[in-house]
Amino acid sequence: MSALPIKNKIRELRFFAEEMTQQELAELVGVTRQTIMAIEKSKYSPTLEVAFKIAEVFGQSIDEVFQYESS
Amino acid sequence: MSALPIKNKIRELRFFAEEMTQQELAELVGVTRQTIMAIEKSKYSPTLEVAFKIAEVFGQSIDEVFQYESS
DNA sequence: ACTTAAAGTTAAATATATTTTACATGAAGC
DNA sequence: GCTTCATGTAAAATATATTTAACTTTAAGT
Q1: Among A25, A44, A59, B17, which has the highest number of CB atoms less than 10 A from its own CB?
Q2: Which residue of B has its CA nearest to A57?
Q3: Which of residues 17-56 of B touch strand D (CB under 7 A)?
Q4: DSSP letter string over chain A?
Q5: Closest residue by Cα to residue A52 from A42, A60, A44
Q6: Domain with B32 in it: what CATH number?
Q7: Residue A1 located in a structural domain
Q8: What is the extent of the structural domain holding A41?
């Protein structure tokens, strides 16, 4: 299908937030560690709800955490 | 499961944009009319990619189109 | 009254996101 | 060398998003 154009800064944000682990982030967001892994590595596009929760954890807006490059 | 807390302003934005129809928005975004309907009525949370595309059509940020109220 | 276009709804099928489980790797500390 | 912890990977199962198709309703125009 379409190459996924959405990049993210989750990894940087995690380390910036006292080296928060994927496991910790997963628990704060309410998903599994593998889901965080997949999103962090841009394996697929998360739901808007999960994206909002991730942004909320870091106190940032979605646009600051995820970068969409239109086609 | 969890009550979906994400509201949106798609309907207002459509009428504000020269009364753009659901069908037209669907074509611009690259999804079906039913998908736009479901998202507009908050039946479920769209993928981040679709959310970005909708925001892009209206020239707004995701946070302007979708309002997440943390639990 | 008739027609048309847009919105609304529903059900079944398909695609994709998420979970669960399990195992592998690399770095750090002892 | 051994253990522990975080990360990475993968396959199968489940949940959810999206499509397809069909039908209903409502409003507007003629």
Answers
A1: A25
A2: B70
A3: 30-35, 38-39, 44-47, 49-50
A4: -----EEE-HHHHHHHTTT--HHHHHHHHTS-HHHHHHHHTTSSPPBHHHHHHHHHHTT--HHHHEEE---
A5: A60
A6: 1.10.260
A7: no
A8: 6-63
Q: Residue B49 is nearest to which of A45, A50, A63, comparing CB atoms?
A: A45
ipTM: 0.93
> What Å value separates CA B43 and C1' C10?
14
Q: Answer yes or no: is B63 within a domain.
A: no
Place of tokens 């309410």: A30
Which two tokens mark B19?
């009364």
Residues of chain B with a CB closer than 8 angstroms to some CB in chain A:
4-6, 45-53, 56, 61-63, 66, 68, 70
Residue B42 CA, chain-centre distance (Å), reads 9
Convert the pLDDT of each residue in B24-71 to its tens digit.
999 999 999 999 999 999 999 999 999 999 999 999 999 999 999 986
Q: Is the CB of B5 under 7 A from strand D?
A: no
Residue B12 is assigned to a structural domain of this protein:
yes
**Number of domains composing chain A:** 1
